[in-house]
Amino acid sequence: MSEPVQTPQTFTPRIFSGIQPSGGLTLGNYLGALKRFVEKQDEGIETIYCLVDMHAITVWQSPADLRRQTREGAAAFIAAGIDPKRSILFNQSQVSAHAELGWIFNCVARMGWMGRMTQWKDKAGKNSENASLGLFAYPALMAADILAYKATHVPVGEDQKQHLELTRDIAAKFNNDYGVNFFPITEPVIEGAATRVMSLRDGSKKMSKSDPSDQSRINLTDDADAIAAKIRKAKTDPEPLPDTLDGLKDRPEARNLVNIYAALAGLTPAAVVAEHAGAQFGTFKPRLAELAVSVLSPITTEMNRLMADPAEIDRILGEGSARAEAIARPILDEVYDIVGMVRSRQV
Ligand code: TYM
């Protein structure tokens, strides 16, 4: 496939990212995504953040849980520092442009591309005959989330990299097939000390809301005692902390705790090992627990306060959806024109 000629300056910088309301949020979501979304809000670029409820139902969600998790996710964004006036904060299903553009992209993306997605292979596993069609098509909807706004930059954790490469392929194929320079070739923004926070029980596995063991993760709803207990019990090794990062090369669990500390403190991992060189985990873990509680407790408290008024959360999501729709609809109209759909309905 030949790359279309791209003149990046023709696209206004715009940030989009999303989180699935498919369970409680974890420290991985916070450090890999939310915390960085908040930083982006201050960089003078338009920021659009979405609770992707349509992605969530690619695996079964009970309606009551989905509603609660969507509101809880919105509360987490706001509690973490997203200002719904400065950023657009909304839930995906209230802006139908996502589903509409998703369909167009289902017709651009190739079966082979989707079949190579590692997340599809992991989630569908051996039982792919029984997985939903939505789970297979999911990355095309994700491309639509981003490109419905012509977003140029997408902050995410490391696990979303392959989906963003697919988004670039879809944009390039659309531009190429229709002979236009319409969609930007979006840049993934994967940066910081915690782009891949690992399980507290197994340093080779990602920290995930779907891990059956609650001990493997810190949830944004955990109280101070639970956070401290999980860090105390986190798997480590008997060696003390080295004085350089090289000394953590084959110690994934130790490296993970150092990364978490660094991301929470706003330091580099190298600075953390320099500061704690020689410390045993018996000493380092309580320090990490104290730091984690000091960062996360105010967020949890604010989430709980916001969750006491779900009507206000719904109002914020409604307002954000209207602002999102105002950007996406004219872009989608242009897409329909490019594709050759007759648009004659009077509005
Ligand atoms: P989701 O809901 O699984 O995760 C949301 C964000 O959190 C990041 N993340 C992590 N970062 C570091 N360490 C971890 N252990 C960890 N776990 C999760 C994810 O990388 C992500 O940035 N497909 C997406 C949602 C999505 C989306 C989009 C994202 C749908 N449309 C458009 C960006 C743009 C997902 O399932 O993320």
From TrEMBL:
Gene Ontology CC: cytosol
GO biological process: tryptophanyl-tRNA aminoacylation
Catalysed reactions, as listed in the record: tRNA(Trp) + L-tryptophan + ATP = L-tryptophyl-tRNA(Trp) + AMP + diphosphate + H(+)
Its EC number(s): 6.1.1.2
CDD domains: TrpRS_core (cd00806)
'KMSKS' region, short sequence motif: residues: 206-210
Keywords, in A-Z order: Aminoacyl-tRNA synthetase, ATP-binding, Cytoplasm, Ligase, Nucleotide-binding, Protein biosynthesis
MF (Gene Ontology): ATP binding; tryptophan-tRNA ligase activity
Recorded superkingdom: Bacteria
Binding-site residues for L-tryptophan, renumbered to this chain: D145
Quaternary structure, from the entry: Homodimer.
PANTHER family, per database record: TRYPTOPHAN--TRNA LIGASE, MITOCHONDRIAL
Family: Belongs to the class-I aminoacyl-tRNA synthetase family.
Protein name as it appears in the record: Tryptophan--tRNA ligase
Organism name: Gemmobacter aquaticus
